[in-house]
């Protein structure tokens, strides 16, 4: 793997390279995506099923688009019982963690004035689940369960069918375990458009979440504003911040766990210890040989794999903040102390037994995390994504009377006389 | 004003009309906006100042783009002392309300496992403040103060200059009172691009908030993903839900308070009382004659003014939920009971003395609210918009050992063998 001394130039170049992977940089696909969206918006089901025929080579129509109870039962027969068991354990951990994120409505009151904030779950949410080479039941759980915990009334799912017109069995089982209400066998930008605007078969939702390819990502961005969307997902990232106390085998294995996702994935080690850097590099070579996704790993390490040796822990930490990685592992003497200095990271794993895949599958926190430096301003997917707030304002006559002249003055100074009038009229003689 | 019996058809037509006002429907401007953004991204300050010359007819350069202490002092001399006083009172109320929105970092721990969520303020935020006919100091407070309360390290502001190269005095005073760190005299899509990508003069920010014209709205949407943005603002809306107990003069005055904003603003009354409907209509005619923004009001009422008479309170409430208005006033016998049935609204005003402008200026809750039906999934601007979260995961060796076989199984079932390996390696003999 590329091993470099951490300098300002090296860092700038790395940051520049990482940001270029953003779905925002694929505007050449925008026109095609927009035309798919417009077709579905206008011709609804007809367009939706035509695109499904074209892109997924599956014959889907209004009579078979919705997954039936029988199809779900069939799916259970196809998957390993052990998987169902593990899904249920993971579900429990994920539900418990997310339940702690729940916010209450609140109000304050004094002397005729009541102010507050009302929390209401979204009514209908659409979860997108990709097909093809990326059938991940864990992802279904991570997208659906926070909505469930939030109290969303109806959760629908869209997932592309296989050529035989069936959905992937693992997806169906995970969706059923997570409590999805309805599953539609459509995918791609056409599915996003269907959920954003509604068709005869697919109902319009309030928010769309879930990962997908570049078409799906751009379609989500295009419909943002008509519906809510989760953050725009880029390629996976792992950043390990380690000192001389780290075990090089563990560090190497963890870097590889993200490098295997796809060729755009990034795996970066920032360390204060040149010896560790060397050993991690050796372990990576050893492990890679034996891993089934060797080819992807080699490409992604070649593209975005870095081992950076920093002069000091402060410099290393500051670089981690600049990278703002999706996953950050802190494997140092005092990981919690280091954590207090971390400003930007989707999920932070502390200590040598907190391996990143623990968070992907099992611990409870969400694995849908901000990528591509967006951890500077985006948060992990969570219950907050499935609620909205309304401000609550109630003043008595006396409370309004106390302040009405100030309001009238303020409104008039902004030349909004009808605003002023609406206050004045309540105190006219 | 248009007075109609509330039927399904009337409602559908109204909803369709309202949604057409969305900034999403102005894609004909997209190309121009994108070209401005690309110019600024590539040529930075040079492009930024050229556009400022072109669109604002002001000569701004790197030496005068930043508002000086002297300019702020000058601004204080130009505005009424009373305005400063009222701004300070409003600031206090807004700060107190938003302080209650603050979320804490939290963790849970048991037996070797620690899970949590770390809350971190954004580092640098950019607030956009329009110029021209819409200089609203109240809007400055509402955009800046939640960021202040959240603990954002640096708040910068962009606002278009007048032809003499100065910023609007009221904007400067409000910005200074709210605690803005730096103010740049640039506006439009070019200012949004400058804050999203950085130029020699204007630093790159993590998130951009604040209202603006269609160019600003589209520019914000275009840079979404590179930086965070607040919700995409559409025209103002007021919806009054009233029964026979409402005072028609108050209702009329409140409807007009939003109608005066601009020609796209909507003012809708839904009532169960036909007599009230009639009286409100008369009062609107009376008030409008005397109001200074008569022409705007007449156009917006003509476009989007509706008085709808519903058969029952349940039907009326359901229509309010479908409209999902920016502002909702509930003026009924039991407003709090009705409120429990409201799912979608930016801000809810209860009772006849809770006039909407009270919320615009003074009560404390934010006046930056979801418009255009987006209250179905967006929330009022608040402290949450200026923080981000990181998940925290820390497992001991023993805790990981308890679950490691399940994780390995799950990863292998998803064919992610490097994920499985990163767990296995920790327990290899």
TrEMBL record, chains A, B:
Cofactor info, note text: Binds 1 zinc ion per subunit.
Keyword Oxidoreductase assigned: yes
InterPro entries: Ald_DH/histidinol_DH, Histidinol_DH_CS, Histidinol_DH_monofunct, Hstdl_DH
Segments crossing the lipid bilayer: none
Molecular function per GO: histidinol dehydrogenase activity; NAD binding; zinc ion binding
Annotated function: Catalyzes the sequential NAD-dependent oxidations of L-histidinol to L-histidinaldehyde and then to L-histidine.
Protein name (record): Histidinol dehydrogenase
Organism: Lachnobacterium bovis DSM 14045
